Amino acid sequence: MFFEPKIYSNMSKGTVEVICGSMFSGKTQELIRRLKRLEIAKKKFIIFKPTIDVRYDKNKIVSHNKDCINATSVNNIAEIKEIISDEEVIAIDEAQFFDATLISLCNDLANSGKRVIICGLDMDYLGVPFGIMPSLMAISDSITKLHAVCSYCGDTANYSYRIGTDQNRIKIGEQEEYQALCRVCFNKKKNCE
Ligand SMILES: [Zn+2]
Predict the structure, then answer these.
(1) Could you give the number of structural domains in the chain?
(2) 117 C-alpha vs ligand 1 centroid, how far in Å?
(3) What is the pTM of this model?
(4) From the centroid of its chain, how far is CA 101?
(5) CATH number for the domain including 24?
(6) Hey, how many other C-beta atoms are within 10 angstroms of the C-beta on 137?
(7) Residue 64: helix, strand or coil by DSSP?
(8) Which pLDDT does position 65 carry in this prediction?
(9) Which residues are close to ligand 1, an ion, with C-beta < 5 A?
């Protein structure tokens, strides 16, 4: 027989889950929802976020509707590796800001039986795939792509359009600086610039 399921029966199966979408799509809210379930289930978990994200609080992740959960701010993936101990679940918010070493870390963690939850922007304000997010989506076991509502026409929005002229891709968004737009409205606005 080629398939021997019993061989693996004692090994806990790791996974990589990606939650992605535009600004205002409810990504952080979905991440917090999954983590609150772990809290109820008394599972050991840890949440990391890049130090660059100083919205609201350095030691918390907060959704636009003000749900929040404690998080550890880190400068890089090496710091994450140092901090992780025996947690069953490792979550990473704003994953688009980390470098490519996160891809192998996710694989290593999942291969050792951990559940990894990644949350991040899939596209930048120009509509370009954001950093390592496409690669994380490729290696993941599941992807949840969320959508916002277009601020112009009310249709499903995929894009985070930046109001104003700041060209810094790393700028972290607030409601006043970004608008969620659908494909049609995004292209109209871009062509007007
Ligand atoms: Zn629209």
Answers:
(1) 1
(2) 30
(3) 0.87
(4) 16
(5) 3.40.50.300
(6) 18
(7) coil
(8) 76
(9) 150, 152-153, 155, 182, 185
Q: What is the pLDDT of residue 58?
A: 74
37 pLDDT higher than 80: yes
CA-CA distance, 70 to 57, in Å (whole number)? 9
Asked whether residue 113 is domain-assigned, the answer is yes
Asked if the model's pLDDT at residue 173 lies above 60, the reply is: no
CA-wise closest residue to 19 among 160, 119, 148, 98: 119
pLDDT for 142-154, tens place per residue? 999 999 999 999 9
Give the whole-angstrom CA distance, residue 128 versus residue 15: 27
What's the average model confidence in pLDDT over 43-63? 83
* Cα–ligand 1 centroid distance for 62 (angstroms): 27
Ligand 1 geometric centre to CA of 189 (Å): 10
Residue 167 within any structural domain of the chain: no
For ligand 1, the distance from its centroid to the CA atom of residue 126, given in whole angstroms, is 16
Q: Which residue type, as a one-letter code, is found at position 80?
A: I
Structure tokens of 44? 């050991």
Residue 25 CA to residue 180 CA, distance in Å, equals 8
Q: Which domain holds residue 79?
A: 12-147
Q: Is residue 189 part of a domain?
A: no
Which sequence positions are flagged as catalytic? 94
Distance between Cα 99 and ligand 1 center (Å): 32
